[in-house]
Amino acid sequence: MDAILTTAQSWLSDFFDAEVKTEIKQLIANDPEGLKDRFYKNMEFGTGGMRGLMGVGTNRINKYTLGKSTQGLSNYLKKVYAGKEIKVVIAYDCRHNSDTLAKTVANVFSANGIKVYLFSELRTTPELSFAVRHLDCHAGIVLTASHNPPEYNGYKVYWTDGGQIVPPQDGAIITAIENLRYEDINFKANENLIEMIDTEVDEAFIEASVANGNFNAAGKDKFKIVFTSLHGTSITAIPEVLKRAGYNNVTLIEEQSKPDGNFPTVVSPNPEEPEALSMAIKKAEEIGADMVVGTDPDSDRLGIAVRNLEGKMELLNGNQTMIMMTKFLLDNRKEKGMQGNEFIASTIVSTPMMIALAKAYGVECKVALTGFKWIAKMIKDFPNQHFVGGGEESFGFMVGDFVRDKDAVTSTLLACEIASDAKAKGSSFYKELIQCYVDYGFYKEKLISMTKKGISGAEEIKQMMVDYRENPIKEIDGSKVEWIHDYNTSIATNVLTGKTETIDIPKSNVLIYTTKNGTRMAARPSGTEPKIKFYFSINAELDHADNFKKVGSELDKKINRIVSELKLG
């Protein structure tokens, strides 16, 4: 506690604002636990950059923690691009303080002689990724906490290729930040270096989204869509993209169309949560819509609902939409003629069905760690291969490589293209998904996420991972565990034969058990939230679409047995 108090007292110097010092003095006098949580560590970069609660302290998002990160990034950019005119672009979402924090970040960059393009109003994350290359920038920043609760904000860093930072840049940037004192931050803006941007980049991004997501599907005039932006940034792009692609029957959920950092109509602005799309689904049932689409606050994730075999709206998960989108893109690529250098991409905790799909089309499926920065890195690392598309289970997808991050804007258009085309041919999105299960295997996944807040929560998550490593699971639902992939040690072990293999991707605190019959369980602490996540994947053969419900019910029962057996339910 002495070290924490010393760190907190260092924020009482004249460098810090008066209101910050007043709050810290109150914490020291009246709230030792609150003081501890705010100063026991520095805010860290995770899988999605830096994300956390807003407030004073080293473990909070505020003017000083973002200023220090920006100063460190400025120093690194000036070292890497010495002698060049360095340019960065900054966007921000609908969250509280996002606009003022974005201006603070712009001020620090400009104070360091770096040219800044700052969006004049909130914009989507995919547009920021696009803008990095469109404006020939060396880096990009977006102020967002994605789908986290209202009290959170965050800071994502993008590199010259438009993808989020990865090794070695991330480590070098973190070192540059850690070598600084807060007093080293230069907040004195050079306004001549800050240029406000909006419509020119908007137009280029919307045109590119339509070009990459529009496949001239049939039946658009009869296809009805309900769309909700969940109070976020996608309202600035998706309605216009759909309109230009020929979708005129689009109903917006007006109550959720105004950007609002309080997210007043939802418990969580996360399309992974069924409750978030409940208002849109209700409207879809009222008007007889064919599809519901909802996006998270920064518009990199999308959730969709389509009509099932009974004609009722059913929410699909990220694995299901990823399979359908990837298959559609592969079909279109196949029609044009495969070149033999195509690849699709997924992540280690997403459905293995992507690998089965790739095998059926004779293309490569590259599998990365969780986080789209790793998929973006694949595109950069394999310039002679053609990236078709790819995604991850957490409701993210990327269409081609013009955006180098999850892109709910273009993916929304692609989902509508698939569904409209299927309907025009007398089928449906849901029926086509079932056919995929017949063709490639019936895979079912389930995610269990446990929240463990604060210092004690972090320790509990750490101990859970230690326990899984030191006392490994030997059997899951009657099938012996065959492989244990430990991404922390980069070793895969066949526990039945003793054979080991090296895992050739960067280290990460992830543990995956796979049984002899293909059942899989992955354990992974979140890189951006105080959570530990458990991912389950099981599969069975589906010989005919008519047996979909029967086999699906059997798989549901199996997942429930496994969750109960592992005491995670």
Automatic annotation (TrEMBL):
This is Phospho-sugar mutase. CDD domains: PGM2. SUPFAM superfamilies: Phosphoglucomutase, C-terminal domain, Phosphoglucomutase, first 3 domains. It comes from the Bacteria. The keyword Magnesium applies. It holds the Pfam family PGM_PMM_I. Keywords: Isomerase, Magnesium, Metal-binding, Phosphoprotein. The keyword Metal-binding applies. Residues 43-180, 204-305, 317-437 form the Alpha-D-phosphohexomutase alpha/beta/alpha domain. Belongs to the phosphohexose mutase family. The lineage of its organism: Bacteria, Pseudomonadati, Bacteroidota, Flavobacteriia, Flavobacteriales. InterPro entries: A-D-PHexomutase_a/b/a-I (IPR005844), A-D-PHexomutase_a/b/a-I/II/III (IPR016055), A-D-PHexomutase_a/b/a-II (IPR005845), A-D-PHexomutase_a/b/a-III (IPR005846), A-D-PHexomutase_C_sf (IPR036900), A-D-PHexomutase_CS (IPR016066), Alpha-D-phosphohexomutase_SF (IPR005841). Its cofactor is Mg(2+).
